[in-house]
Amino acid sequence: MRQIEVNTRDRQGFYDISPQLQALVHESGVDDGICYIFCPHTTAGLTLNENWDPDVRHDMGMALDALSPARPGYRHGEGNSPAHVKSSLLGANTFVFIENGRLALGRWQGVYLAEFDGPRGRRVWVKIVES
Amino acid sequence: MRQIEVNTRDRQGFYDISPQLQALVHESGVDDGICYIFCPHTTAGLTLNENWDPDVRHDMGMALDALSPARPGYRHGEGNSPAHVKSSLLGANTFVFIENGRLALGRWQGVYLAEFDGPRGRRVWVKIVES
Amino acid sequence: MRQIEVNTRDRQGFYDISPQLQALVHESGVDDGICYIFCPHTTAGLTLNENWDPDVRHDMGMALDALSPARPGYRHGEGNSPAHVKSSLLGANTFVFIENGRLALGRWQGVYLAEFDGPRGRRVWVKIVES
Question: What is the pTM of this model?
Answer without folding.
Answer: 0.98
